Amino acid sequence: MTTEVRVPTLGESVTEATVATWFKKPGDAVAVDEMLCELETDKVTVEVPSPAAGTLADIVAKEGETVGVNALLATLAEGAAAAPAAPKAEAAAPEPAETTDVMVPTLGESVTEATVSTWFKKVGDTVAQDEMLCELETDKVSVEVPSPAAGTLVEIVATEGSSVNAGGKLAVVSGSGAAPAKTAEAPAPAPSTGGAKDVEDAPAAKRAMAEAGISRDQVTGTGRDGRIMKSDVSAAVAAAAKPAPAAAPAAAPRAPVAAEDAAREERVKMTRLRQTIARRLKDAQNTAAILTTYNEVDMGAVMDLRNTYKTEFEKKHGVRMGFMSFFTKACVHALKEVPEVNAEIDGTDIVYKNFVHMGIAAGTPQGLVVPVIRDVDRKSFAEIEKEIGEKGRRARDGKLSMAEMQGGTFTISNGGVYGSLMSSPILNPPQSGILGMHKIQDRPMVVNGKIEIRPMMYLALSYDHRIVDGKGAVTFLVRVKEALEDPRRLLMDL
């Protein structure tokens, strides 16, 4: 019986890849999930595991060839061999117990690296199948890694703080339950540099180096065993072409600190999430022409409507009626009139979105994340409240997936929950608009010629002035204000 090995899904909008390296040759015995070859796309490197145990019968796509999604890579002859032959043991040595490698799972679209943040088990501990072994931290989310089998944790390959690639090896579990041979954690192997002579580089990388006129020792390989990939060559070329930047304030050395003060300081490495937040916020300021316009809204009508229907709403839909669904609906209403706020710049083009994927910024112990409520323009008040609540809880628990934080077209940030009275939110690239909500505060207002105490909230719209003019931004915010001060306008689409 033969089994086909095909190109896996490569990621959103990625349709082809280059066969970079074959780790096996025809006639080699392979185990199920053992890595057969490595594919290289424009952005990431993808390892292809064996779908079954047996013998590699034929390689259809050779190194250097371009293949599409689901294309045939190779064929396996099942049953010819269950796994690669083990080295001959000494006569007196007992038969080794079956072991299972713990691998880094798929981390999400375009995410190729993570940091090992916490090991829940130590070498020698007994583990159950699917019991959590460790936690990985990527740029945006935390990923828990379960044990693939029951047994004993016999080796930790990647220690806490180590950087690991998608598909990399984390640890080894012995199915025998016997005590491990190793008693100490092994440090993660340091990445090999491009100067290694015993590693065969990806064919696409060799061509790219020849075209760019650079030597192998000018490139640092990030592939398996330090293998140089095409993306590594592109990075080296870009780094060589980039002019030496002037010393920026952020990169400047710290001012001298008195010894008595230094002794009372605590230095903590920034998490990947915090580093990403810092980088993206600064990139937004450097790229977009960010401008903010302000207004204020009388929240009395929304508060009265909530008080009238909140009990009946919760009883029917099983979720509390909050303010966020009103603001979401009001923004959707305004985006229809001012579509450029729901658009983005792509080179010299403006991409208008005929849908609304609303990002709802949520504060977590690890930092700010923005889960996305997709097609929010088609959802009811109850559906919006349920999804915001569910995604908010999962965000605080670090359980959001990468896909749930991608694709947003507009964002709402509620600083009012922390007591903020006024702020200027920063855009979430590549979006062109973000609405800032703030604290509801009783203030004296003139209503029909008389002074009344009204529950007021300041609103702030930060927008990309490259595609959103001042008139459009002000119009958007006024439409949000009108819809909130008279929610009946939402029903009549006014």
Layout of strands and helices, then pairs:
Layout: E1 2-6, E2 16-22, E3 29-30, E4 35-40, E5 45-49, E6 54-59, E7 66-68, E8 72-78, E9 99-103, E10 113-119, E11 126-127, E12 132-137, E13 142-146, E14 151-156, E15 163-165, E16 169-174, H1 203-212, H2 230-241, H3 259-262, H4 272-287, E17 290-298, H5 300-317, H6 324-337, E18 343-346, E19 349-352, E20 358-360, E21 362-364, E22 367-369, E23 372-373, H7 381-396, E24 410-414, E25 433-437, E26 441-447, E27 450-464, H8 470-485, H9 488-492
Parallel strand pairs: 20-24, 24-25
Antiparallel strand pairs: 1-8, 2-4, 2-7, 3-6, 4-5, 6-8, 9-16, 10-12, 10-15, 11-14, 12-13, 14-16, 17-27, 18-19, 20-23, 21-22, 25-27, 26-27
Which terms summarize this structure?
CAT-like_dom_sf, 27 strands, tricarboxylic acid cycle, OB fold (Dihydrolipoamide Acetyltransferase, E2P), alpha+beta, Biotin_lipoyl, Chloramphenicol Acetyltransferase, 7-stranded mixed sheet
How would you portray this structure in words?
With 494 residues, this protein is α+β, with helices and mostly antiparallel strands. Among the domains are: 1-87, RNA polymerase II/Efflux pump adaptor protein, barrel-sandwich hybrid domain (OB fold (Dihydrolipoamide Acetyltransferase, E2P)), CATH 2.40.50; 275-492, 2-Layer Sandwich (Chloramphenicol Acetyltransferase), CATH 3.30.559. Helices cover 22% and strands 29% of the residues. The chain has nine helices and 27 strands. It has helices at 203-212, 230-241, 259-262, 272-287, 300-317, 324-337, 381-396, 470-485, 488-492, and strands spanning 2-6, 16-22, 29-30, 35-40, 45-49, 54-59, 66-68, 72-78, 99-103, 113-119, 126-127, 132-137, 142-146, 151-156, 163-165, 169-174, 290-298, 343-346, 349-352, 358-360, 362-364, 367-369, 372-373, 410-414, 433-437, 441-447, 450-464. Strands 17, 20, 23, 24, 25, 26 and 27 form a seven-stranded mixed β-sheet that branches. Strand 26 and strand 27 (450-464) form a beta hairpin. The longest helix is centred in the middle third of the chain and has 18 residues, at 300-317. It is elongated, with a radius of gyration of 28 Å.
